[in-house]
Amino acid sequence: MSLWSIFRREGVSGFSAASTAEEVTEGIDGTGLTAIVTGASSGIGYETAHVLAHRNVHVVMGLRNMATAKGVKESIAKHNPAAKIDVMELDLSSISSVRKFASSFSSSGLPLNILINNAGIMMTPFTLSEDNIESQFATNHLGHFLLANLLLETMKSTAQRTQKEGRIVNVSSRRHKFSYPEGIRFDRINDRSGYNSLSSYGQSKLANVLHSNELARRLKAEGTDVTVNSVHPGPIATNIFRHSRLISAIIHTFGKYFLKNVQQGAATTCYVALHPRVGAITGKYFSDCNIAEPSSQAKDAEMAKKLWDLSSDLVHRSPIP
Q1: Residue 62 β-bridge partners
Q2: Whose CA is closest to 149, among 26, 314, 288, 294?
Q3: Distances (CA, A) of 59 to 77, 164, 228, 256, 268
Q4: Which residues, in sequence order, are bridge partners of residue 286?
Q5: Strands across the sheet with 166-171, in order?
Q6: Which family would the database say this protein is a member of (predicted)?
Q7: Is the pTM above the cut of 0.85?
Q8: pLDDT given for residue 5 in this prediction
Q9: pLDDT tens-digit series, residues 73-96
Q10: What is the DSSP code (8-state) at residue 260?
């Protein structure tokens, strides 16, 4: 039993750090909804896809490793034979892969009610993506930034046609509070000098919150019925720590006592994606299934706008309106 299960301090939502994804979605019927979940092959991404499918949502999983796709799909179907699951190849570190995924999804004719930007990497050594962008920033932020914008028209039209609110959920982290001192290193994203793997991870997670806030502001100004929120899943024992042998060893030995399990870790994402209580809430940061306070940098509107412009430039497009 972990500490999270002992201390069940429920917030305004009625849920706590110990709540599981199944508990926070109990009684919710997602029939008729379609969701994309990135990075759903393991960890909280897999649990998110599993629980959404269990609630009758048609889930499209964006997976980088297609060799594991069949097993992932079969595992979910084993628990719920009626689950509607599709798998499509998606590498968030590659701009061309994101464009291909978005084009293929749009061509499928499927509606899109929920987009869960979950995939991520953590504490990697300094490397550049195939597009020559620092890997953590490219994978955790830029790929999701592009994906959300490429699928936005589909989400808008789905919301208008079905009269059901669309929801975008960006999985961030409490580590967004521990980025580089300047927040986003706008002029040094690819600078190896001064690179710190944990600060760089924090930078990418800060970018997730800033992106959520800026996109929420733009959609609200348009009067579009699509919300955007960011979430902190909590400290969880998953393979995201694989790039640090020391942290992985500590987690393997003691993690079950002081970290959330995967079912608890996916709770906030599933709550924000599905629960009626979150309806019309946008531009907020959630932790333990409740609205929480992000860092002061995450609330910096000018930094959010500047990040939007930088991201538009990096994906080699004219600025997204």
Answers
A1: 38, 88
A2: 314
A3: 12, 17, 19, 29, 18
A4: 231, 291
A5: 85-89, 58-63, 34-38, 114-117, 166-171, 226-232, 285-287, 290-292
A6: Belongs to the short-chain dehydrogenases/reductases (SDR) family.
A7: yes
A8: 52
A9: 999 999 889 899 999 999 999 999
A10: B
| Spans in the chain with pLDDT lower than 70 | 1-9, 237-258, 317-321
Q: Are 93 and 65 in contact (CB under 8 A)?
A: no
Residue 14 has φ and ψ, to the nearest 5°, of 95, 0
Contact between 48 and 24 (Cβ < 8 Å): no
Q: Strand 226-232 and strand 166-171: pairing?
A: parallel
Whether 60 contacts 35, CB under 8 Å: yes
Q: Which residues pair with 50 in a beta bridge?
A: none
Structure tokens at 112: 């899109």
Q: Do the strands 166-171 and 285-287 form a parallel or antiparallel pair, or are they unpaired?
A: unpaired
Question: Coil, strand, or helix at residue 236?
Answer: strand
Dig out the tokens for 220 from the structure. Answer: 């609200």
What sections of the chain are H helices per DSSP? 3-6, 21-24, 43-54, 69-79, 95-108, 135-137, 143-162, 197-222, 245-258, 262-265, 267-274, 301-314
Residue of 114, 112, 119, 128 whose CA lies nearest to 63: 119
The DSSP annotation for 38-96 comes to: ES-SSHHHHHHHHHHHHTT-EEEEEES-TTTHHHHHHHHHHH-TT--EEEEE--TT-HH
Write the CB contacts of 305 (distance below 8 Å, at least 6 apart in sequence).
214
- The model's pLDDT over 98-134, given as tens digits with 9 standing for 90+, comes to 999 999 999 999 999 999 999 999 999 999 999 999 9
Residues belonging to the active site: 195
Token couple for 208: 């997730």
Buried/exposed code over 186-209 (b: 16+ C-beta within 10 A; e: otherwise):
eeebbeeeebeeebbbbbbbbbbb
Tell me the C-alpha to C-alpha distance, in Å, between residue 152 and each of 60, 86, 113, 158, 210: 16, 20, 10, 10, 17
